[in-house]
Amino acid sequence: MPITWSAFDKVILQVGTITRAELFKEARKPAYIVYVNLGPLGIKKSSAQLTDLYKPDELVGKQVICVTNFEPKQIGPIMSEVLITGFANEQGKIVLAVPDGAVPNGSRLC
């Protein structure tokens, strides 16, 4: 179903660098609590189901693309503030959507 440019423009996609990732022990499905430095927005927290392909220490320093204007969502004991984007591979495991080169944290998709 096609959408208008103005509808797409409402979704804010920004790049940030993961500063910390830890096992989210209380999650129903295996997940990490991931902290992302989004530049002017500061460090935001996200619950991310990335445990199949990534270890917490492998995530630190990686730039990721996040939806930054969703309403915060309570997930168990944490408030998830951004959505880290990715794609399911053939096995259904999440592969991160990342920029092809380094860009400043907080940069918006254009």
Number of contiguous helices:
2
Structural class, judged by helices and strands? mainly beta
What general form does the structure show? globular
Q: What would you give as the CATH superfamily?
A: Nucleic acid-binding proteins
Using the CA coordinates, give the radius of gyration.
Answer: 14 Å
CATH architect. name: Beta Barrel
The figure for the number of domains is 1
How many strands, what sense, and barrel or not for the largest sheet?
5 strands, antiparallel
Q: Give helix and strand order, one letter per element, not per position.
A: HEEEHEEEEEE
* pLDDT < 50 stretches: none
Beta percentage is 35-45%
Strands, total number: 9
Note down, in words, how this protein is organized.
With 110 residues, the protein is mostly beta strands. It has one domain (5-96): Nucleic acid-binding proteins (OB fold (Dihydrolipoamide Acetyltransferase, E2P), Beta Barrel), CATH 2.40.50. The protein is built from 2 helices and 9 strands. It has helices at 5-8, 56-59; strands at 13-23, 32-37, 43-48, 63-67, 73-75, 78-80, 83-84, 86-88, 94-96. The strands form 3 sheets. The protein has a 5-stranded antiparallel beta sheet. Strands 5-6 form a two-stranded antiparallel ribbon. It has a two-stranded antiparallel ribbon with strand order 8-9. The protein is globular. The mean pLDDT is 97.
Please tag this protein with its features:
single chain, 110 residues, mainly beta, OB fold (Dihydrolipoamide Acetyltransferase, E2P), five-stranded antiparallel sheet, two-stranded antiparallel sheet, 2 helices, 7% helix, 38% strand
